[in-house]
Write a sequence for this structure.
């Protein structure tokens, strides 16, 4: 696949070639590729098979929210291909297949999905009891649990123990603004960013802020400012693991070829903490919504802008927020043939974005949504439906970019023991009250305007400085007044699932859990999110609720449509990301 090599947002070096081996065949990638983007550039579209039905799974996101791209790399299983950088000579093998991802002999199990209702493993195979050990061994073999290796884990590991007045979790515009505001008063600031570089959702966007500066340039500007601030210590490619009493924070940093470690354990004591982890996308639930060729908006957008790869040839967009419209316009300008854009919102779109779509002759259907993806191993056609389900349109395509809306990356807030409630306006789960000396900023609160996001971060950074005894009351008041004049939190999409019947409306990709399973669990009395999660296994897989985390409470609430029960999210516990035992050791 030819690369888009002249984009100013690229994080790859197209001229520096790297080799990899996949299923015994040699391929080429480039410096800056992840394993997933290198394979995608070489035409790989089926990355794995699902755990229960062995359905084909492809590249869906680039931040590891699902187990679709778990692979064995240089003998190490369960490596997230989207998050692991390519190094020369890597050997990659698929997992959970009998044969190959394209031809998995266990794929026949999908035809027997009807025989595996919710909780069937709790209710079957245990009578007569003497046969249970036999069935247990067979189920474990099919689930791909593998075997324990009794050898020293290869790799280089390190540890670091830090003290600082302020710790900022998230290196996007809000997090950087918070770090700068605290450091301006002479405080020692520790900044953690899960991605390998700073900038957050500014990093790959060419849209302009109020001053006319493209957001990717603003990301560079903010990153340079914080990197030049001596009192801020930055840890890129560092994910939060745990958050404990008295602001004890644990994190894991991934090393690169220049570092002396592969993974590093970091433990931080901070007087005050700012959480600015932004938003992820809420998956759209429809028939065959996990088919290869279906991907999230941010995945498609970043494939092009960050890695120089057009995600497909002919695309349909089914979105629930303005970032989807922006991505459709941007990718169309880069050469993607955008056939149609559907927006689950009937109104509220940015008029400027609608005008830009019209100039490119891209039709938009308001109040419509993707209801079914067609194709056995890869998407070939999509059916679009009006929200009420009475009108339908079909489009032949090889790419469906789908998102129901945005959900805030709130996992760190659960670890603080903050009580979470549902905001019906933004559609987000937000804390009703935060513990002392912990502050939140940016898109976590529903802000999407760039100036609002940065002002929110500045306000949280000053509040953290106040926790440390710095007299900043006047500055806090000034920023608060400025923030009140800026656009507030954005109204979110309320869509839960697309209309239409079918048995493959997946809510959890990791464990092959469908809407049908959730309804079955509710019918049996497991009608609370925490109970349904355990009975159906939704959100208990390798990514611990990354895909179903927001949708599960909404689906449960829809089941209770005739009651006034509050929306309650499921609990999140540490560790938030998978970490090698060698790192802890």
């Amino acid at each position: 696949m030819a690369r888009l090599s002249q984009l100013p947002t690229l994080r790859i070096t197209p001229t520096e070639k790297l080799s990899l081996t996949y299923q015994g065949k040699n391929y080429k990638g480039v410096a800056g590729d992840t394993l997933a983007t290198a394979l995608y550039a070489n035409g790989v579209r089926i990355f794995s098979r699902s755990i229960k039905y062995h359905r084909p799974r492809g590249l869906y996101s680039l931040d590891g929210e699902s187990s679709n791209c778990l692979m064995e790399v240089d003998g190490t299983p369960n490596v997230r291909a989207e998050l692991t950088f390519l190094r020369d000579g890597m050997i990659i093998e698929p997992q959970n297949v009998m044969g190959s991802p394209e031809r998995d002999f266990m794929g026949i199990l999908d035809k027997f999905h009807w025989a595996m209702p919710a909780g069937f493993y709790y209710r079957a195979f245990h009578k007569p009891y003497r046969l249970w050990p036999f069935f247990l061994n067979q189920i474990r073999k099919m689930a791909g649990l593998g075997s324990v290796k009794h050898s020293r884990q290869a790799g280089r590991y390190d540890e670091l123990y830090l003290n600082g007045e302020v710790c900022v979790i998230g290196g996007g515009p809000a997090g950087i603004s918070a770090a700068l505001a605290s450091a301006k008063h002479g405080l020692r600031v520790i900044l953690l960013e899960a991605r390998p570089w700073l900038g957050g959702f500014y990093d790959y966007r060419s849209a302009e802020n109020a001053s006319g500066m493209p957001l990717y340039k603003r990301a560079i500007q903010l990153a340079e400012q914080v990197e030049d601030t001596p009192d801020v210590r930055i840890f890129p490619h560092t994910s939060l693991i745990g958050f404990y009493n008295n602001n004890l924070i644990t994190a894991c940093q991934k090393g690169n070829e220049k570092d002396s470690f592969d993974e590093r354990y970091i433990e931080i004591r901070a007087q005050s903490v700012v959480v600015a982890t932004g938003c992820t996308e809420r998956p759209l639930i429809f028939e065959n919504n996990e088919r290869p060729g279906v991907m999230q908006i941010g995945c498609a957008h970043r494939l092009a802008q960050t890695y120089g790869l057009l995600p497909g040839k002919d695309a349909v967009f089914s979105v629930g927020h303005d970032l989807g419209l922006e991505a459709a316009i941007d990718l169309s300008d880069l050469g993607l043939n955008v056939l149609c854009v559907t927006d689950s919102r009937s109104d509220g779109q940015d008029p400027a974005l609608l005008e830009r779509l019209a100039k490119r002759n891209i039709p938009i259907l308001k109040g419509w949504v993707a209801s079914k993806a067609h194709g056995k191993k890869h998407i070939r056609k999509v059916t679009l439906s009006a929200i009420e389900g009475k009108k339908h349109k079909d489009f032949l395509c090889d790419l469906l970019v789908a998102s129901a809306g945005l959900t805030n990356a709130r996992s760190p807030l659960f670890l603080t023991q903050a009580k979470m409630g549902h905001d019906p306006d933004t559609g987000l789960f937000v804390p009703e009250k935060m513990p002392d000396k912990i502050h939140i900023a940016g898109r976590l609160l529903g802000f999407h305007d760039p100036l609002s996001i940065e002002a929110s971060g500045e306000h949280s950074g000053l509040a953290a400085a106040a926790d440390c005894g710095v007299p900043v009351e006047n500055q806090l008041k000034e920023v608060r007044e400025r923030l009140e004049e800026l656009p507030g939190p954005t109204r979110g999409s309320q869509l839960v699932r697309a209309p239409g019947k079918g048995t493959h409306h997946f809510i959890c990709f990791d464990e092959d859990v469908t809407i049908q399973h959730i309804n079955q669990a509710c019918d049996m009395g497991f009608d609370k999110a925490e109970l349904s999660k355990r009975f159906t296994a939704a959100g208990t897989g390798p990514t611990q609720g990354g895909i179903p985390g927001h949708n599960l409470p909404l689906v449960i609430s829809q089941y209770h449509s005739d009651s006034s029960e509050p929306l309650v999210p499921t609990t999140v516990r540490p560790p938030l990301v998978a970490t090698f035992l060698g790192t802890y050791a």
Notes: The radius of gyration is 23 Å.
